[in-house]
Amino acid sequence: MDEIADRVFQADDVSIAAGSSSTLQAFDESPSSLSLIIDINPLQWFRLKDQIDLKDLSRSICIYLNCHLSLNSSNKVNVLVANNFSDGEENGGSKILFPSIHTKTDEHGSSFGNSQGKNLVNPNMYRQFRFVDEIFLEELHSILQKEPTELNIKNFKNTLSGALSISLSYINKLNLSNDGLLKSRILIISVTDDDSLPYISTMNCIFAAQKMKVPIDVLKLDKKDGVNNSIFLQQATDATNGIFQKITHPKGLVQYLSTSFLIDSNLRSILILPTNFKIDFRSSCFLTKKIIDIGYVCSVCLCILSLIPKNHRCPVCDSKFDDKVIEKLLKKPVVGVSNTNGKKKRKINSVM
Fold first, then answer.
1. Tens of pLDDT along 30-40?
2. Which of 61, 244, 282, 338 could make an S-S bridge to 276, C-beta 3.0–4.6 Å?
3. What sign for the dihedral angle of Cα 37, 166, 171, 278?
């Protein structure tokens, strides 16, 4: 009996070991894609000049991208910028830094032509790391050189939703070419309030990421006494099972990137991640672009309004509102009128 029991336990140990090795092998061999969106709003970076600047940020990002590529030889990266100022429409909006459409590469990952980023990267670095870092630094340098010398806040337009849509399109393209075996995620490094974000396009990107099962992580950089709002970004991380973390000490950016935001989506179920318990689920008015607590909702397109339009039509879908409903909503409350007949009320149990 003891010999039979020993054989059974040995068989169980072997099967458990085989199952664990196969599980680890499945985790190790599954490649992943990382889409990084960088907020380069110069006005907001000027507020953080005493703590961190774009030069320090670029160094931390290069380390972070190299760490992601080192986890698996088949990992992919995609880097974009948003919220950059520009004089014309050609240079404004969201831009893709890597992979760059202006740089030709061969099948081994080597770039053709002269690159300004080669002067900033160690030539003895691993070839894949050097290739990504050179193009990233070169494209970022060219965009910063095109920034106007005089910045006007009135001409600023938040383009984070556009960068999100580009990232989702890139992820969809990778999934089609890899038969859906590539696990993807998005990381946003933000320094700007998202109150000015277009609500409908931002929520469409969030719902698309939720359907594609792409987690959206947000790293919010702010000062110690900062009151930056991140309502939509908090909702994005909550809807897609992402990570939202606000950092008031940007000097330790590498540590945050290499710990909280280096975890793949297939490993997050077995790890303890940073959680955000204070999530603001308010929305913004389509007309005033302000965050509201109570408003009106269109029954056709679910557009949220803080006031009723004068033409009684939805500004999004142009649906005609019911006049009877509008009349009830605009009707003021009736104030009760006191008794003016001069008659005295009868007392009941010495109570008026």
1. 789 999 999 98
2. 244
3. positive
